[in-house]
Design a protein that fits this description.
Blueprint (H helix, E strand, L loop, with lengths): L1 H44 L24 E5 L12 E3 L2 E3 L2 E3 L2 E4 L5 E3 L4 E9 L4 E8 L3 E8 L1 E2 L6 E2 L4 E4 L10 E8 L2 E3 L5 E2 L4 E2 L3 E5 L3 H12 L13 H14 L8 E3 L6 H8 L3 H8 L12 E3 L2
Length: about 300
């Protein structure tokens, strides 16, 4: 009897091991899920925490993070922020200062969506700048900025998915025509959206974009030439008095043939023909000076050159 008990122990031990194996596998699975959830929680607290050192600040450009010399940005899973294919103003120098994004033609009330999944960092109103704007930080390291909207549809610290509505097109802030001002920033530094987005074809340029400081300027200029604004559209944002003075001073210095560059602010009900008659020039010349066509749709408050 004792012998039978002794000989049965190895079998019992084997049974215990056999029964324990599935439990071990389940525990590993539980550990894996918990670890994955921990990572997801950290990312939701501060997306791209590997290159950004903080989350709770109120500035678009002054972000605590080190701009890398080289950084690979994953563009997969994108969604165009608007179906509009019309770029009205390029990234780069404009009116004596840097224009930090692209202006995309939209109308008041048009739906604006998140370009990538991420977390909303800023929802604010800036009357002398972006107007009603939203800043989203994404897991790929980018932050996208959406300016001049008529209404914001999200709140700070909200998690959003690519393609989710975040606001409505508008004309708020320093703007004289309804449009979306769209920026892409890396560690607070604005980089040309045309390097990654092709609004005319409603697509990204490739699945990945590698930012390199060494050749960024030449790449940016080439992207603007390939995917920039069409000459038939005029810039939306009105130059300030100081910027107009700067352009005028430059014209005088360069002896461009005009003693002063003059501007006309479009009023409600005005057309190209009424403005041309008022300023004593032809419609053709007015269009040529402003790089627009005769069928161009004027908006009140828009600034046109007339000499």
């Amino acid at each position: 009897m004792a012998m039978a008990s002794l000989t049965s122990l190895p079998m019992m031990g084997q049974d215990l091991l056999a029964n324990q194996a599935p439990i071990d596998r389940k525990m590993k699975a539980v550990d894996s899920v918990a670890f994955h959830q921990l990572i997801m929680n950290e990312l939701s607290e501060n997306p791209s925490a590997d290159i950004y050192t903080d989350w709770d600040n109120r500035y678009v450009s002054r972000v605590n993070g080190t701009m890398p010399n080289e950084f690979r940005i994953d563009l997969r899973g994108f969604c165009m922020p608007t179906p509009s294919r019309v770029i009205t103003s390029n990234f780069g120098a404009r009116w004596g200062r840097q224009h930090k994004g692209l202006d995309i033609k939209v109308y008041i009330g048009d739906t604006i969506v998140a370009a990538f999944s991420g977390k909303v960092r800023i929802v604010r109103y800036e009357p002398r700048g972006y107007g009603k704007y939203v800043v989203i930080r994404h897991d790929n390291g980018l932050e996208t900025v959406y300016g001049h909207m008529s209404k914001q549809l999200v709140h700070e610290n909200q998690i959003v998915r690519a393609g989710e509505p975040i606001g409505l097109g508008g004309n708020t802030g320093r703007s004289t025509g309804s449009h979306l001002h769209f920026e892409t920033r890396l560690c607070g530094v604005a980089i040309n959206p045309a390097l990654m987005f092709d609004f005319r074809n409603q697509d990204v340029v490739s699945d990945f974009y590698t930012f390199r400081r060494a050749n960024y300027s030449s790449e940016s200029a080439q992207a603007t030439r390939l995917r920039g604004a069409s000459a038939q559209y005029v810039e939306n944002e009105r130059p300030s008095a100081r910027e107009v003075a700067s352009v005028t001073k430059t014209n005088r210095r360069n002896n461009t043939g005009t003693s002063e560059t003059r501007f006309h602010k479009v009023k409600k009900g005005e057309s190209l023909s009424t403005i041309a008659r008022k300023r004593g020039i032809s419609v053709d010349k007015l269009c040529k000076l402003n790089h627009i066509g005769k069928s161009f749709r004027l908006t009140p408050g828009q600034i046109l050159k007339y000499n």
